[in-house]
Specification:
- By secondary structure, the protein is an alpha/beta fold.
- It has 3 domains: 72 residues, Nucleic acid-binding proteins (OB fold (Dihydrolipoamide Acetyltransferase, E2P), Beta Barrel), CATH 2.40.50.140; 208 residues, Rossmann fold; 56 residues, no CATH class.
- Helices cover 21% and strands 29% of the residues.
- Helix 1 runs parallel beside helix 7 and helix 3 crosses helix 4.
- The termini are far apart.
């Protein structure tokens, strides 16, 4: 508020349009939303949109609350060595990306730091993720897009608002989705998907020889999903005389990918449509030793006593206490926890009594955004 920001944060001056007071700050890191973190002279922490670690900035405050102070850049006094010129004409106006103004190496480092900070600060663990695995591909990776249209132009929401920024191409989207975007004339919210056979609904994908019909949730980055699934499979380390339970199985993609190594696998899912899709995916891939049931992960009566491994991949809010109690009741040898929110993962790890975190890995599922996926192995 009160300033005009030059598009892309690639100009040294951003001229204020009011006489609001300014502050000079040094940026030391990033918050979970990708904003730069700095301190004011009075000790308050301030979040700065479009800042890079190492920047020295002149800023003006836009939002002051007890737990949150935000600011915009007035002028870049000393640019960070990690700062680059953004390659997108609508960045940062469009809210789809957070990190197009820094190098990809710096982005990966920021995400790894975020995961390890959560492990140390929230979970109180000495265990740290030693790597952030990635495909190396920062553009054209998304197989899904949710657009907003007035019937004339389509686009994405402006940063921090529901105002639509019209676009005719997005660097994050696959070629199929960008072609569809140019031809889109519908109004309202529009979901586009692209799979192994091009633009389609529902989505169909192939991972390591397995073919999935994706009628519900699936990772938006197929290449990074393969890296994640391979890591989960390694952590699960199943043999043909062991049993697996996947407690948030969705359409069964991870259950089938990992469960094919086990003597028996069971997927648990609350959504009946997803369970039907998971069963069809098992039949399609001739995996008869893998079954699926429709049930609440916290309340179902397990037909498998003492499973050797349990996989959980909950939503951003993490696991409920009921699900954690169920896991502890089943007492598997190994738990593989997949998370898209390092903070709730770290919170939950503190509650797993009798288990030790043996390994943690970060995965860059969403390049050029502040989001990061991670998984960890707990051993009883």
């Amino acid at each position: 508020m009160g300033i005009t920001m030059l598009r892309g944060f690639d100009d040294m001056t951003v001229r204020p349009i009011t006489s609001a007071p300014t502050h000079n700050v040094a940026v030391t890191g990033y918050n979970s939303g990708g904003e730069g973190v700095a301190r004011l002279d009075d000790g308050r922490v301030v979040f700065v949109l479009g800042a890079a670690r190492g920047d020295v900035l002149e800023i003006t405050l836009t939002k002051e609350q007890y737990r949150c102070t935000r600011a915009d850049i007035v002028r870049i006094l000393e640019p960070s060595p990690y700062r680059i010129k953004p390659d997108c004409p609508v960045y940062p106006e469009c809210g789809g990306c957070d990190f197009r103004h820094i190098t990809y190496t710096e982005e990966l480092d920021a995400k790894l730091r975020r995961v390890n900070d959560a492990m140390a600060r929230i979970a109180g663990l000495s265990a740290q993720a030693g790597e952030i695995i990635n495909t190396g591909r920062t553009n054209g990776y998304r197989n899904k897009a949710v657009l907003h249209s007035d019937g004339v132009s389509s686009g994405f929401y402006r940063c921090r608002s529901h105002a639509v920024i019209p676009i005719d191409s997005c660097l994050l989207l696959s070629d199929d989705l960008n072609r569809a975007l140019k031809e889109q004339k519908s109004s309202g919210e529009i979901t586009l998907r692209s799979g192994r056979n091009g633009l389609c609904q529902p989505l169909e994908e192939e991972l390591d020889g397995l073919v999935f019909n994706i009628s519900g949730f699936f990772q938006v980055n197929t290449g990074a999903a393969l890296l994640l699934y391979q890591k989960v499979r390694k952590y699960a380390a199943l043999s043909k005389n062991e049993a697996l339970i996947d407690m948030y199985c969705g359409v069964g993609a991870m259950t089938l990918f990992v469960g094919r190594d086990a003597g028996y696998a069971l997927g648990v899912e609350y959504d009946p449509a997803a369970v039907n899709a998971a069963r069809e995916n098992a039949r399609r891939n001739n995996l008869s030793r893998i079954e699926f049931i429709c049930a609440d992960a916290a309340k179902w009566e397990a037909g498998v006593s003492n499973p050797d491994c349990i996989i959980v991949d909950p939503p951003r809010c993490g696991l409920s206490l009921g699900v954690i109690r169920k896991i502890l009741e089943l007492s598997p040898k190994r738990v593989v926890y997949v998370s898209c929110n390092p903070a709730t993962l770290a919170r939950d790890l503190k509650i797993f009594e009798g288990y030790t975190v043996h390994d943690i890995c970060a995965v860059d599922m969403f390049p050029r955004t502040a989001n990061v996926e991670c998984c960890c192995l707990l051993v009883r």
